[in-house]
Fold each of these.
Amino acid sequence: MDTTPAGSSTAAIVESLTRAIVEHRLQPGAKLAEQKLADHFGVSRTLVRQALFQLAQNRLVTLEPARGAFVSAPSADEARQVFAVRRMVEAGMTRAFVQSASPTQIKALRSHVALEKAAVERGDVPERTALLGDFHVRMAELMGNEVLAQLLQDLLSRCALITLMYQSSSAAAHSYEEHADIVKALAARDEERAVRLMQEHLLHVEQSLSLDRRPPTSDIAAALA
């Protein structure tokens, strides 16, 4: 059985469930039964309820009256909006990174890309998924901007649901190569190229989605219609 970080606090439960969603181990529409979660984590249902409320605020969980909690299933419109926000935010982040990055920070990003490559090559889907998303958060962390890092973490968590629901069979398998190209541009202090590569990368990820696919539902009648 998986364990939460020390203390099994509300924050630890939120972290564990978020990671399961980000790593595609929990499917959109999956029911999150309070008692089962309480038994799993060895805590009261009150702590579980608090964790689910926090996840609902982060848009990762949907709370339905009289039915319970479910892993959210973002609509196609929401998916497009999330990627539009990411392009705006990450373009600015990339510009700021170019202007302030040290050799140590560039080395840290190169090391991260090497981990991505290794995960892709060994076919470790959960690790690959987490690392590819964490690249963007890592940039913000290296800049020392915790507010930006948290904002990106929230967006990346929502993107994990989106890619799980809408990823097509022809999805790009070389995101880590695009990350490597971005790092090269950052190292060369080529601001315009770095920003262009970041925006193209995010556009490629969005274009790999089949946003016309009907999203899953937790409603039996709707699912069988």
Note: DSSP finds ten helices and three strands in the chain.
Amino acid sequence: MKYILSLFVLITVWSCDKSVLESVIEPYAPAKVDEAAGNWKTFILTSPTEVTVPALNSDAAYKKEVDSVKVLEITADQKAAVQYWGAGAVLRWNEIGRELAARYNIPPAANAAGVYPVPNAADPLADPKFPFANPPYTARALAYLSVAQYDALVSAWKYKYQYNRQAPYVLDATIKPLLPISTMPSYPSEDAVVAQASYVILLAMFPGEGPFLAAKLAEAKNAPLWAKVNVTSDVVAGANLGAAVAAKVMARAKTDGMSASNNQAIVPDLIANAKKVGLTTLWASQELPARPPMLPNYGAVKTWNFDRATLESIRPAIPYLPGSTEFTADLAELQRINESQTREQAAIANYWADGPGSYTPPGHWHRYACEAGVEAKYSEVRMARMLAYVGTALMDAGIACWETKYFYYSPRPQQFGLKTSVGLPNFPSYTSGHSTFSFAASTVLAAFFPEKSNAFNNYAQQASDSRVYGLIHFRVDCTMGGKHGKAIGTYAVQKANADGAQ
């Protein structure tokens, strides 16, 4: 009860606030440096040494670099940057990714002709801006970001312990670093690896943000120099490695089918299929003018942790049909909420709305993941690993959920006289995206942090319930979406259990 009351107060305070708030996090020494991480299995790289990191310079050259760091004068602004990035490069770039998702989560408006223009990647800052960072787009962007960070860091760890260069403050005890000291070798710089890999991915996902991202990149690569934990050759090697790995990750992104995800030409066939499998009432846009369905072909995008045959085999069964006893009961539940919604139900619906101007449910769960990783004092490579499995599970959840939505093309409650105060999604109802995303992520996080499994499950259940409280979904949408999400998350957990990091 104490948990419910405290959460209700928190939700009440946040429910009307669309700003992206982040915790103040101080730099910390990781609980483990994960010396063997260079042997962990990667997502894209065939081996940790697929990208070559050149051998070290001579001892004399390194000593000269250390001497230059030793005499470096640090300004107040540079010290502040060190503290910011010192909380974790993986963490900070994930925050930046979520910030951009929130900034670009703006549905295009209809023009004077009553047409909804499509964002143009070739002219990303034109109206409407590219991308429209809806939940599937955000899930995909954060998945690729985390995979690039993880693969690049596994490779970095391999080379760190191969070359075993001591950090400047180990070589010269008179150097006082501005961050917690570590026993980890310094070459290549993990901060530079993450920074360059993240920059490549986020620039591809948000091409209108070049100047912003370039400024973040420059600061992130300078921070370990200002902190006196790296020298220039550490940073250069790290940046080159990060860029090369990110290019390989982006090669997958360019061929994963996302470019065809908004193909409206397939809609008539989707409608015909829904009728063929037994749907009697189909979803229709409730906006004026009618808005084309969002990403009708996203379900065809390539998954990470299972194949296409598996995706089809775990697709939820047909939803309740209008007129059935089960459908009538679900509709009656929504009608009761519509007539007498409680303050707590309204607060939960608003808190989990994650609509325009937010970083959507996938971003919400990435934030929970980051907070758990910081609390556990994860190393950079372990943080990236955890986020990669959370991120790929969330992207898989979006793909599988959207495939289900357009397979059945089921109607929303608004087509039966109900109204919502938390925004009306422009795609079919069954199954609930919030439920599928949330239970996929909570399943993965519970495996990484078993002591928090009850809390993550409670969050997921509340996210799922919020769509009923907000009159966005029928109960069956949420129940079946939750079961689907758990199955999807389990595939990510199985893959994590076999990557050698246990």
Note: The CA atoms of residues 44 and 248 lie 7 Å apart.
Amino acid sequence: MKKLFLTAMMVAASVGLTNAQTAQRQVVEEGGTGPFKSEVVGDASCPGFTVYRPQNLQELVAQKGALPVIVYANGACFNNNVEMRLLLSEVASYGYVIAAIGPYDEEDVMAQWKGVLLSAYPETKGEVIMANGEKILPLTPEERQAREEQQAKQREEAQKKAKKNKKQQAEPPFRTYPKMLLEVLSWLTDQNATQGSEYYHCLDLDHVAAMGQSCGGAQVLGVAHDPRIKTCVMLNSGIGDMEMMGTTKESLKNLHQPMFYMIGGPGDIAFANAQKDYERIADNIPVVMLNSKDGHSGTYYEKHGGNYAKAVIKWLDWQLKGQVGQSALFLDDEYLKMKFPEWTGVRKNF
């Protein structure tokens, strides 16, 4: 009996806390523009992820019913979702629970993302906003050249150092993997069924989306075969002829759900791959691809995630909530031109 008790204790310890336990909480941009003000949550029972959800979740569900779920994978397959905090907070404010890969983090990676933004954001954007509210300007041509020279010097020094120490191990380029999207979906499923959990009977698990940006889109394609995933959102992403995160063009054959590609036009490094995906997706899979002129960084640093957030919300409202009126952006060229004059769109299998 004593041995049995000790075994049970060891199993409980390895699993961790059973019920969701909010450990950190933050409100971004006053909770978004949607009807249900959102919050960003770090959960002690799921430390590898960040949850974006409406505030007063259980009260909202009591009034409106269970909310659809989104699992999200990051650009560059990073283990942090700060870059998309404005967009994810905005989407959550329209009545979604989003579990994003990467632990809750308020400030530690802001300098890193500032560097990404300064290097990649189009000069035409002018002033943009970081997820912590900091306003910055893209690099000038002179600053860009100086940074490139500095980076070249750093690479040269790193190569010299590596030659001196052949045993030095390079850090792996990725710390995340596609299956994490299914793992957090299973965690949410358990929480939804566990009495006493913050998410008890709050989640509509018949309406789940997988969404990813850039490399995160490859992770989405890697798990899109799962029957629980009812639609996929590919942001500045496409697999093309590449092999990434175990995903190849063969993964497109596993699709069973409507697909939405939101791409930044010819200036987006994912543009060619997304075009190939669109052509290769089977004739029984509905797919829409919209193209803006925003490049690979979309509008993620604009207030409330900019126009990309608006498009994502319309797609999810249509696909997960059955709001057919939201389909106009994706099915009506005149409506698309009226809402976003510089965007173009194609569709098939509708």
Note: The first strand starts at residue 22 and ends at 26.
Amino acid sequence: MTRRSPLTTDTPAAYSPERRTAVVFSGTGTAGAYHAGVLRALHEAGVKIDLVAGCGMGVVAALFAAIDGSARLWDPQGLWRQPAAAKLYRWTWLLRVAGWTAAALLAVLAVPLLLLALGLLVYPIDFLLRIVALDSQAALASSYARLVGTAFSTAYLPTWLPAAIAFLVGVFCLVAIMATAVASWRTRRHVRGPVWWRTVAAPLDHRSAVAWVRAGLWGLMGGAVASARPPAATELGRRYAEILTESLGQPGFRELVLTAYDLDASRDVVFALLSDVTRRSFFRRPAAVGRTRLAEAIDLADAGRTHLADAIAGALSLPVACRPHHLTHAPESVWRGETHRLCHRPSALVRLLDEVAEAGVEQVLLVTAVPEPGGPHTLSASLSEPRRRAGDALGRLEAGIVADAVKAALGRFERVFEIRPAHNPLGPLDFEGCHDEHSDRRVTREELIDRGYEDAYSQFVEPIVGASGERLTYATSDQTYPQR
């Protein structure tokens, strides 16, 4: 059944490619795979897009779509089909070392008990061998007794067991000291409290996700030298901004708006790269009382182009679960060279839509991977694993945020269209897939890409774009075909 946004109608005038159009991506973690599928459908249908915007994992889709590289998200070797995508947001390496150390300690302590438990198998087997008159081969029990006596003798057990435990504890302490030193070195500002809390401040590591995105962008921009190591983060951001600035107005290139949250300034930071027609009014927009526009808006087409990497890292840093990203402002900026902490704010979708409206957008296509809230008898079992429980909470929070964002957009745009799944068992942190209780089978990221593709066609391309009466075209590598 085709589901439409409450702001749409069945009339052909509901959608028009003549209006300035934006696609806004919202979500965390695996939502990016759904975004990739939606982008594929919009690309094939030839939907005109003037501006792309994103918060959280939505920045990935926006970044690639802005420079005509969205195919790098869904193709067979695309970003979301790579094996590396299954290892995003892993536990921090210190927690992983602590887990393996604890497992090794338990194994060492269990060796004596397992040796004794082996007798539950040895003696029955020895008894059966004696029954079938294999006395000559039934020395199993006596051999086992000698083994136990030797293992528990004063020459062995009191020596190797404490030594093994001391070795494992020593290794863990050494790793913890190294982790504390690295954390202290990375901290660019004074931290109050015991130094060891810097090491365990956040359980999840988002740096692998940041490196994954940067490598994908470099593969898209680097061309023949894409196999080389990506440049430094600031240099990569500068090259991206230069490419997009020089190519705006060309087919496949779109204006860009991203958001992250400044924990120290307690306000959203807006990163934007816009055309000259929109740029002046956007960055000179009067701010709310008590806020300065220059303190919260960074022009990626000007001096702020080196901060694109900060926008990526800040948007991918989950609140509380990950360490905030540190952004160092320029000395000539409003913040006078201060270093601020950035992270993702799930409810920033409302602010993102507000900024998109200020960029002159008339109709918005909102893409989210969370389904609409269910009614009675849709409860599910609680999750016990901490990582999945955190992801489930983030997904459920976003469902309410999307509803608030759509309501807030009522008076801001002529039309708001939604693309979202009817059912999505993958939580934001289920990068390796998960078991779907409703269908009793395993669901993967690849399937989420396909679901986004199908939903985009069934919810927007066919009922909305098709009903508008406009005849669109989409380009392939060698020729152009009319929309069917």
Note: The CA atoms of residues 94 and 176 lie 7 Å apart.
